[in-house]
């Protein structure tokens, strides 16, 4: 049965909202507008090679990688607990992780602002117990905290899904052949969950490296990540050409990281990841 | 049989899953080098019994001994027992070699020794040259062989097999039965085998343990189980049988189907109500005048080696197996030898 036509609306959608905008970015990135009109140039990319911009890029990549790493370290055990026999049937626990995702992303980040403020809730509690104050708002730590908090579910869910699919008999077989819990984890559970880990990493790393809301709110105005940088080119400085060029560079970085991830995934012989 | 010490001893084992009683007072011993089969319908507790021996379940009460040592709380990886799982449970991210070598690697065996042992195992299960193959590329029968090799390479004292042939087609199953039996003979490893296939149990086992609803119904050699079923459940489950209600008039004399028969059983109360078991192949087809019972043939089905006939006579529907057939509607005579009449104490059926 040929049902090709059902995909036509999607093609139209893709054309209007993905392909044309991408082409526009491409166009803007390679052009400048001056007195003589629009002309093609590579100036926008040369401009980016200046040390201050490279520093911003590296800082963004570094923070995003670190947040992804923290998400993995925190998320994997949580996914394991969720997938374990005692909890796999309890929806309550998984809902605890899913419900925050129903709330608006901005609201969630704003709430951290209230929590971390100089005279915010956390400091009020700390000073009540005569404990040292926590002044992390507008620092790296706050940005990482915000990223981990917002993106953790994207790490937990794919790992949880993969762990749930692992046949319990495989674990039993490994125990039967003499493997203690540590061996079973390192030789069976972990290798079989790599596809989930990979999609988790991709799903956390990509929004983390491009975020501008979290760094703007929790990092304070002075804090600039590549996302803020792009945003400023478009909104404040109206330099769409340079903004597009940075976006292109970012896109290339993301494509490379996806490429590395999927390669790694194939090598491990794992099943299809989330994409 | 009681002379040598049992390698596995289960004592008063009970197990519940929630409200459901799975095992009710299981007492069982397995001797060294024995091929013991746990046989019963699904849900009878045979797999749970195997899992308790393997260490994957702990009994709610009762004790399990391995070579005289109580091992109730010993984790699976510390038991000198290996399991062949129902759906093989091969590690999908490893090739055939790594699957088989898994147990040896954990024990820290050195590489040349592992390689040699894996080769031996592959030869034993007829998979020479399969080292590098991924397990996904193997057929069901080949995966089964890898699973057996993976368990046997560790030279366990006892090999547990959980319906290992359940997923194979009939022909392959028959071949594997013979092969497993050979492996058992060659290695001298004790086998505890779980199946719901009575024919498989009869073919392979030294001892059969028939289970139903969490209880052991009968333990004995295949011949004993087949010829002297202890109750109606065993008779019904092992092979086909006619089970008829009757009365033991006195020793060696039983009344059923409206007639008195000579038999070989004794030791019942006079006039005790009993169940009589007659195997379909033991009923002889004779001329209607000379038979002990006469009846009308209701249906005839060709079964390959024999015909199966349903005959109504004396208020009983008899199942007969015979290489000769009678016409449907014909009146025939049936005759029984005293040693073909098996008397069982009355029990609740099922």
From TrEMBL, chain A:
PANTHER family: INNER MEMBRANE ABC TRANSPORTER PERMEASE PROTEIN YDCU-RELATED (PTHR42929:SF1), INNER MEMBRANE ABC TRANSPORTER PERMEASE PROTEIN YDCU-RELATED-RELATED (PTHR42929). Belongs to the binding-protein-dependent transport system permease family. CysTW subfamily. It is found in: Cell membrane. It is a multi-pass membrane protein. Residues 57-261 form the ABC transmembrane type-1 domain. SUPFAM superfamilies: MetI-like. GO terms for cellular component: plasma membrane. The chain crosses the membrane at residues 12-31, 52-76, 96-116, 137-160, 197-219, 240-261. GO terms for biological process: transmembrane transport. Pfam families: BPD_transp_1. Keywords: Cell membrane, Membrane, Transmembrane, Transmembrane helix, Transport. This is Spermidine/putrescine transport system permease protein PotB. It comes from Ruminiclostridium hungatei (Clostridium hungatei).
From TrEMBL, chain B:
The keyword Nucleotide-binding applies. GO terms for molecular function: ABC-type putrescine transporter activity; ATP binding; ATP hydrolysis activity. The keyword Glycosyltransferase does not apply. InterPro entries: AAA+_ATPase, ABC_SmlMolc_Importer, ABC_transporter-like_ATP-bd, ABC_transporter-like_CS, Mo/tungstate-bd_C_term_dom, P-loop_NTPase, PotA-like, PotA_ATP-bd. One of its GO terms (cellular component) is ATP-binding cassette (ABC) transporter complex. Residues 8-238 form the ABC transporter domain. It catalyses: ATP + H2O + polyamine-[polyamine-binding protein]Side 1 = ADP + phosphate + polyamineSide 2 + [polyamine-binding protein]Side 1. Its EC number is 7.6.2.11. It holds the Pfam family ABC_tran. SUPFAM superfamilies: MOP-like (SSF50331), P-loop containing nucleoside triphosphate hydrolases (SSF52540). Keywords: ATP-binding, Cell membrane, Hydrolase, Membrane, Nucleotide-binding, Translocase, Transport. Gene3D superfamilies: 2.40.50.100, P-loop containing nucleotide triphosphate hydrolases. The complex is composed of two ATP-binding proteins (PotA), two transmembrane proteins (PotB and PotC) and a solute-binding protein (PotD). Belongs to the ABC transporter superfamily. Spermidine/putrescine importer (TC 3.A.1.11.1) family. Part of the ABC transporter complex PotABCD involved in spermidine/putrescine import. Responsible for energy coupling to the transport system. PANTHER family: SPERMIDINE/PUTRESCINE IMPORT ATP-BINDING PROTEIN POTA, SPERMIDINE_PUTRESCINE IMPORT ATP-BINDING PROTEIN POTA. This is Spermidine/putrescine import ATP-binding protein PotA. It comes from Ruminiclostridium hungatei. The gene is potA.
